Amino acid sequence: MTRTHTALAALSSLALAACGPRPPAPVTGLIDATEIDVASKIPGRIKVLAVREGDRVEAGQELATIESQEVAAKIEQVRAAVSAARAKLTLARNGARAEEKEQARHALDTAQAQVAVAQKAYDRASALLKTETITQATFDDAEFKYKAAQDQVAATKARYDLVVKGARAEEIEALQALVRQGEGSLAEVESYGRETVQVAPIGGEVAKVLVHRGELAATGFPILTLVDRSDSWAAFPIREDLLPEVKVGATLQVEVPALRRKLPMRVFSVSPMGDFATWRSTSEKGSFDLRTFEVRARPENPDPDLRPGMTARFIPRSAS
Predict the structure, then answer these.
(1) What is the pLDDT of residues 164-223, one digit of tens each?
(2) Hey, what long-range contacts does 95-101 have (CB within 8 A, 24 or more apart)?
(3) Exposure check for the chain: N or C terminus, fewer CB within 10 A?
């Protein structure tokens, strides 16, 4: 048995020597690109869907229209409140109408005439009281009517001054604040109104339509997804013992089988993956677990044929 084992070991050694070292193992990754989810701040039903999957869109292009009767009603309500506040401010600034001023002046003239009549009656009553021609009660009645007429003049004078001078500065300032508050509320609801028309935030390609015409779109739920193919990169899971040759700034010759050519890509990001991505674990004394890192590399020259999901691979020089 010992001779047999020795012979097999020798044959295995000769076979390995004849085959030579194993070729480097390629590292396989995927092409990815920037994706933008287009969503609305308001709920509603999709009324118009202006694009389909695969369409190329430019920034600012209209994508979808949402029908929301609640938002439209709220906008009209706030606009009416702002109009009422502006009308009150204009009324306070302009003051009373000419007819109101004339009416207040006539009331003041009438009150002053009544004071003159009451004063004459009071003076006569005073003279008669001295000669004891009238009773004290009669004099007291004349005196009361005279003082009441004076109070009436003071009240009508204050009313006349108010009509002539108009609203106080504090009242105008309060009305101005009320108008500004209404205008702020209107700007807010109008911003929600603009959300009924969704436009492309970037130029790109429609990758996926998630909500179709006639369906309800929830607040913040993506209606469609745009992909910016001009910002593409390749992501590779790299064992940490191979990181020295894929540092940030290094250039990799990446093969894209779908394009049947190699693209030079520059590494721009190296970050550790989760614990689940441990490449090789060991409990041997003096050894350590090998973690996996995600290495991202961007083409040095953008390729219009590069698409997310394509396979990409390169061969590390030190892989074995």
Answers:
(1) 666 677 888 888 898 999 999 999 888 888 889 999 999 999 999 999 999 999 998 999
(2) 95/163, 95/164, 95/165, 95/166, 95/167, 96/163, 96/164, 96/166, 100/163, 101/163, 101/164
(3) N
DSSP code per residue over 235-255: EEEEEGGGGGGS-TT-EEEEE
**Which residue range forms the structural domain that includes residue 154?**
73-190
CB burial class (10 A; 0-12, 13-18, 19+) of residue 284?
exposed
Q: How many Cβ atoms sit within 10 Å of the Cβ of residue 211? A: 21
**Could you say which of 165, 190, 215 is where a domain stops?**
190
The per-residue pLDDT for range 256-295, each reduced to its tens digit, is 999 999 999 999 999 988 766 555 555 544 455 678 899 9
DSSP 277: G
Token digits of residue 293:
């890192």
CA 137 to mean position of chain CA atoms: 80
* Count of structural domains, the chain: 2
CA dihedral sign of residues 278, 280, 284, 285: negative
